[in-house]
Design brief:
- The chain has 313 residues and is α/β, with parallel strands linked by helices.
- The protein is built from six helices and eleven strands.
- It has a single domain, classed as Rossmann fold (3-Layer(aba) Sandwich).
- Bound molecules: zinc ion.
- The site of zinc ion has 6 residues, from loops.
């Protein structure tokens, strides 16, 4: 008995379709952009951990892009942003060439994703579009090399009062933080994809509560805050400071986490970076920035409101 031509064709077609369906689905590509820190931070210590956290999700393929070093020629620095679903940045350093800035703005306006980690929000204090992407930022290098470019003129501070955003454009003062300590991170947007299922409050390990960040503060959703207590710390603001934020920029999505300090003198393990809360919010925030969704379940070792949780890298 022989198969008719029609049946042969049908069989061949079904085999082809099966093969196509079984082909591995390529993962969204994420660029981890790093390579410069101020004297207060150390990208060399932080980026390998963040790279491993992104890869542990199984959701992304991660390319590390390392910029030229501080004070060196940046003119050839032109990452190909358009090839990536999201750009995760640990970068507090020199200005990029105008063409690179312009390409990044285009990328974001056309639906790109950005994740800004800790001191990355200290970068580019005078770059208007960058400040819009991150919502608010801290410190920042002045032209004379001193710290403190972001001040009252940079825009309002975001205050979280009575369950909503209040913009304070009149109180002067630049960024600050109390000495490092364990502190409670409080969820403000429990239905946001990044936050859904996370505890209402959880204890983050030995980090800096970035305070009095300033910027345009447009299109910002405050996802979580922390409270620097004036009774315990002389430099505390006594305001619920935004720790995690989601910002809409054009068609793009930005996840801004102020968590994740590591300094040049710190020795491993780095508590802020190995806190399960930091890890999970970066993993979820990157998925959201890349795709607009979060499919990752909340792990059982997430910190509680009384107990920190650190992972061994
Ligand atoms: Zn820091």
């Amino acid at each position: 008995m022989s198969l008719s031509l029609a049946r042969l064709l049908a069989l061949a077609f079904s085999l082809l379709a099966t093969t196509l369906l079984a082909a591995p689905v390529s993962k969204p590509k994420v660029m981890l952009l790093t390579g410069q820190s101020s004297k207060y931070h150390d990208w060399v210590k932080s980026y390998p951990l963040v790279k491993s956290y992104l890869e542990q999700t199984g959701l992304f393929s991660v390319d590390v892009v390392i910029s030229p070093g501080n004070g060196t020629d940046m003119s050839g620095f032109r990452p190909d942003f358009a090839r990536y679903a999201a750009v995760v940045m640990i970068y507090e350093g020199d200005e990029w060439p105008a063409a690179t800035k312009s390409a990044f703005v285009d990328y974001m306006k056309n639906g790109g994703g950005l994740v800004s980690i800790h001191d990355t929000d200290n970068a580019f204090p005078y770059w208007k579009e960058w400040n819009e992407m991150i919502g608010v930022g801290g410190w920042g290098m002045k032209a004379d090399g001193s710290i403190g470019a972001r001040d009252l003129s940079s825009g309002p501070m975001i205050r979280w009062r009575d369950g909503q955003i209040v913009l304070d454009a009149t109180t002067p003062g630049g960024a600050t933080h109390p000495t490092r300590h364990d502190f409670i991170v409080t969820t403000c947007a429990p239905e946001h994809p990044i936050m859904r299922g996370l505890p209402a409050a959880w204890l983050h390990a030995n980090d800096e509560i970035y305070s009095r960040l300033r910027g345009p503060a447009k299109n910002v959703t405050v996802l979580a805050t922390a409270f620097p207590d004036k009774a315990k710390f002389p430099t505390a603001t006594g305001e619920h400071e935004p720790m995690l934020m989601a910002i809409a920029y054009g068609k793009g999505r930005v996840f801004h986490t102020t968590l994740g300090h590591v300094g040049p003198k710190d020795l491993a393990p780095f508590a802020p970076l190995t806190c399960t809360g930091f890890i999970v919010t970066v993993q979820r925030g990157t998925e959201w920035a890349a795709t607009g969704k979060v499919t990752q379940p909340v792990p059982a070792d997430f910190p509680t409101d009384t107990k920190t949780s650190l992972r061994t890298p």
